[in-house]
Specification:
Blueprint lengths: L5 H18 L5 H10 L9 H25 L6 H24 L8 H20 L6 H19 L2 H21 L2 H25 L9 H19 L1 H12 L6 H22 L2 H21 L5 H22 L23 H9 L27
Length: about 375
């Protein structure tokens, strides 16, 4: 289902792993060059600055052409004409996207990014115009969820995966919002349950090699699921949303206080126990949310003093952990994690050996053993 050439995607993963391996000095430059030659990547992927420039240029050209067409339709135009033109350009941008990906082999070039976003934006705009901008919130986010999911499956775009996840959660939120007080009361638990389910699914798919081209999307999905799971049970979020949107008093406040403090602690514990960086980093990040929530309702120290004390404690803790992990302990180290891609199952070592040593090594013509002075008991002072 993915639009990009899968052989080039696999070779791209291999090249990234070989670059990392060579950077760690586990293989030589010659071995690296042999693997890169044996695993060519046909994609056009410029540097980030050119990618940004191509994105802006493509967006400007696309919007300008659409604007000129709108100007031509201004006299005697109707809402139906503008709607049809908007949907037509959405379809046109998608066709151009497929062409640039499948024929021109663009991959994260800026052109494909811009065409993808314009196609989705024009599709959504078409629905807005067709309904006179009176589209229900739940339907809006359902469209965002569907479009983001389709683009994610087709182009494995990480940002589109995040958009699809946000659309899904917002769709569930506004659906429960319109279903009445019972659904509103159960909303935090519904969001927590769905977030937990999505995290378990993404963690399961991350272990399956057939989804290797979606690993980036699955990783962002797992991180967002962890964050949403916590936010749905955070005391501040539940209370403020309940009072502002639902006009309902806080219920089971003690339970949400437990969630507020216990969930980041559980993330950190499980991250250390399972050596899961995503859990550990999200847990450390959400620890700040715990401090903010507690301080918002129970201010103990002045803000300046609290920030100073907290910063000093964090610096001291960071120094201690860095010093403690100078030598690796129990699988943890202070060194940077240089593994960017999970492609162990691609058997990089075997490929390096196979592509480096094409033929059985043979001694040069006229080579004769002998000449050492060790007499078989070890090397002497000369050979």
């Amino acid at each position: 289902m993915i639009a990009y050439d899968q052989a080039s995607l696999d070779n791209r993963l291999i090249q990234q792993e070989v670059e990392t391996t060579c950077r760690k000095q586990c293989i030589t430059e010659a071995e690296k060059a042999a693997v890169l030659h044996a695993c060519p990547v046909r994609f056009y992927t410029p540097n980030p600055f050119i990618r940004i420039g191509l994105f802006i240029a493509t967006a400007v050209i696309g919007v300008s052409v659409f604007g000129m067409c709108i100007l031509l339709l201004t006299v005697g135009s109707s809402t139906e004409s503008v709607t049809a033109l908007t949907f037509f350009f959405s379809f046109l941008f998608y066709l151009a996207l497929e062409m640039f990906v499948r024929v021109k082999h663009h991959f994260a070039s800026g052109v494909d990014d811009a065409l993808m976003w314009m196609s989705g934006a024009f599709m959504l705009s078409g629905f807005f115009i067709a309904t006179d901008f009176d589209l229900d919130d739940a339907w809006i986010y359902m469209l965002i969820f569907v479009a983001g999911t389709l683009f994610t499956l087709r182009f494995a775009n990480v940002l589109m995966c995040a958009v699809a996840f946000a659309g899904f959660i917002a769709m569930i939120f506004f659906t429960c919002f319109h279903l009445g007080s019972t659904a509103q009361t159960l909303l935090p638990f519904v969001v927590m349950g769905l977030s937990l389910l999505l995290y378990r699914l993404s963690a399961r798919f991350l272990r399956e090699q057939r989804f290797r081209h979606y690993f980036g999307c699955l990783e962002i999905l797992s991180i967002l699921s962890l964050i949403t799971f916590y936010l749905a049970g955070n005391y501040y979020v539940v209370r403020e949303i309940g009072e502002e949107m639902f006009r309902a008093p806080m219920r089971l406040g003690w339970l949400f206080w437990i969630f507020t403090v216990a969930v980041p602690t559980a993330y950190i514990y499980l991250g250390i126990r399972r050596r899961n960086l995503a859990l550990l980093r999200v847990g450390l990040l959400l620890t700040g949310a715990v401090v903010f929530t507690v301080r918002y309702y129970y201010g103990i120290l002045p803000a300046e003093l609290a920030m100073s004390v907290g910063g000093a404690v964090v610096i001291a803790l960071a120094w201690y952990v860095t010093h403690y992990l100078k030598e690796p302990k129990a699988g943890f180290t202070r060194e940077d994690d240089d593994e960017h891609d999970d492609v162990e199952k691609l058997q990089i070592e075997s490929l390096v050996i196979a592509e480096t040593f094409h033929e059985t090594p043979k001694p040069p013509q006229g080579f004769r053993f002998g000449g050492g002075s060790g007499g078989g008991g070890g090397a002497g002072s000369d050979y």
